[in-house]
Structures are given as structure tokens and as C-alpha cells.
Amino acid sequence: MSLDSFFYPESVAVFGSFKEGAIAYEILRNIVEGGFEGWIIPVNPKGGTVEVAGRTFEIRQKLEEPVDVAIIAVPAKIVPALIDEIGPLIKGAVVISAGFSEVGNVELERELVEKAKKHGIRIIGPNCAGIFGVHGKFFGSFEVRVKPGGLALISQSGAFGGAALAMGNDEGIGFSAFVSYGNAADLNESDFLEYFADDENTKAIALYIEGVKDGRRFLKALRYAANKKPVIVLKAGKSASGAKAAASHTGSLAGSYEIYRAAFKQAGAIEVEEMEELFDAAKAFEMYPKAGKRVAVITNSGGPGVLATDKLEKLGLEIAKLSEETVQKLRSFLPPQCSVKNPIDLIADADYERYKRTVETVCRDENVDSLLVICVPPIFIPSEEIAKAVIEADCNKPVIVNFMAGELVRDGVGLLERHGVKNFPTPERAARALKWLSQR
What we know:
By secondary structure, the chain is α/β, with parallel strands linked by helices. The protein contains 16 helices and 19 strands. The strands form four sheets. Strands 9-8-11-10-12-13-14 form a seven-stranded mixed beta sheet, sandwiched between helices. The protein has a five-stranded parallel beta sheet with strand order 2-1-5-6-7, with helices on both faces. Strands 15, 16, 17, 18 and 19 form a five-stranded parallel beta sheet that branches. Helix 11 links the parallel strand 15 and strand 16. It is elongated. It catalyses: acetate + ATP + CoA = acetyl-CoA + ADP + phosphate. One of its GO terms (molecular function) is acetate-CoA ligase (ADP-forming) activity.
């Protein structure tokens, strides 16, 4: 099923109040400031005009021409009637309005779906935070805008989605799309999994769920998507209290966590435990589709190298046994006090040349599937110098980077990110990134 009219629309109507600070106004502002190139129609029975981001729009009293998508932020009780009125003119609607099944108004939600079905249109929501089609420059939500990239974020919770987008910006992640689907009265997580599995701008899918209504359909969709690209799942409502909270939040049935965990495994999805892990997995998959289990660790500091080695082994990865040829080659140019066993310790004064030659030499070893490069720069060696070495090294295997810490590596990390290399701020997080890549 194509949902292109939601994520790549050519026209949009926004319904609600256009007073500054009102939700409809903020969504309109996001759409305009985000550079949407299609037709934009604000609608409110009171009419008038609204000025946003330097442009003045006439507020229509009613929608009179066809549009791809309607974004609705009006009181819940009038939503079904509005859908009935505009149904012949729209392909789909995003219902931001809350006050449906999540507060016990099951009948109102049923009426909303019936009106939509009557006109053959699809609904996202209600009780949601909206959608982004980032490559279509469409920011149909009041959440923070993001830069284009390969991650599609599907979130049952609007607030979680908003926080994830903001954190994603901080982590340097690029997004293809975002959808907050709230109560999932019509379209649900399964529909979005299937859609993004086939979306050419999406390289990986991140899914935050509290519960699903149709387990069999979900498993089928998850398997379909995970077969095509990495699917990273963060499941909330694992504990009894969490499940109860999920039920009152989006009216979803959280169910037994053990069943979900088995389903994720069976489908080939990658389950993470917390938000930080979700972003680390997303960063890893934005760079590489997969990686083998045999890892070489290159560091200029013994401690972080040992921490990385411990974590890699604990996660079930292998510390690669370097060939004798590689060891001899390393010995030929590294100072005698460097350790040429894996982890390879280049010692504190390691410069551009030492890092670059080591990465290239180790990369050619047939016993090595991937590299974890750690840099804790002393104050006399700029972190950009080591970043440049990583970027310019001739290596065709996955290289995961851990530049630490803070201020000291800010410029180096910035240079890496400008060249599409994501930084993992601790050895443990870098090790986990390799674990997720190995699961593919």
C-alpha cells in the first residue's frame, strides 16, 4: 500500500486555530519554514488571514478543492463530521486531536473511522503528533525539524517521537521520515513498517511501540521490513506497571513482553533497551548495512582499549587474531613501545601517519571483519588530525569510531560527521554498534 500522499504530498490543508502558539499555527509554521514546495491551505470557519515565516495566507472558511492530506487539530467531538465533509476532497488525514479511545471515547473513535471508510480515505491518529516526509520537505507536525537522512522513525508516542527527533539532531542523525500514530484507529505500525521497507529514501527503521492490536499482522509486517533493511525496536510497557501505563496512554494492549521479545527475534528485528541504544544502532546502520564478528581494536590509550575489548567479548563478538604478516608489518613502522597484539595500542603521541597506516594495515588482514578505532587525544595533538587519518585511510571494511572526551575532541568529531562518520562517545557504545551490525 502506498502512503506517498502522506510523506510526499503536493498539497496540504491544515484545520484548527491559527492564533500564535496554537497547535495548527505551529504546524503551519513548521510546514512553511521547512520549505514545503506544494500548495498550503489553512482552514478555519472564522476565516481571516495568518502571517507565518514572512508569508501571509488567506484562511479559508472551508475546504473547496482537492488536497493530498489534511492535518486536523480541532476539538475531538467535531472531527468525525469534518472528515465526512472533506472526505471527497482528501486522500488522507492526520488527526492530531486528542480525546478519543485513550480517554474512553471509543464510540467517537469508531465514528471517525466509519466516516473515513465511507469516503475511502486513510487516517493517522487520532491523539498523535503528526508526520514528517523529510525528503519531500514536508514537516506536518509541531515537533522539531530534522535534517535529511536514512532513518524512518515510527512512534506510538508523540512526546517520545519529539524527544527522539531532538536527540537525533544532537547525535547527528539524518531522518527520512517521522510518524507519530497515536491511537492507531486506522493506519498502524504494521502499515508503516511495510511502507518504509519499500521507501527508497529509508535505509533503516526505528520503531517505538507500547503495544499492538493485531499480533499476527504485526509479525508479518515486521518480518517483511526486517528482511529488507534494519529494523530497530524499542518496546515500552515491559513491566506490569509499565503495561498498565501504556494502556492508559494510547489505549493499547501491551501484552506479555516475552511474547513480543520472541516475535522481534523471530522476525529478525534488533531490539534495544533504551533511547541511547536506539540512536547508536541508527548511527551504525546509517553508515554500514552489516559487519562480521571479528573485530580489531586500535587505540592510543590502553584503558579504553581494554574496556572496548571486555565489552566486545561480553556481547559475543570476537577479538580478531591478527595474522603474522600483519603483526610484522605493524612492527616495521610502529615505535617499539607500541603493542601490536589486538587491541593495538599506538600510545599517547600517535599522530596522523601512525593512525592512517595502522588502520590500512589492519584492514587488509583477512582475519579482521571490522575495526573499532579509539582516540583520546593528548593536548598537543589536535583531534582533527586523527579524524583526518580515519577519513583518509584506505579501508573497505566497517570502521566504528570512539573519540573521547568532550571539548578535547569536539573539532575532530565535527570533521568526522561532515564526512559521514558518526562518533560513539564511549568504548562500550562503539562496541554495541558493532554488535548490532553483526546481527545483520
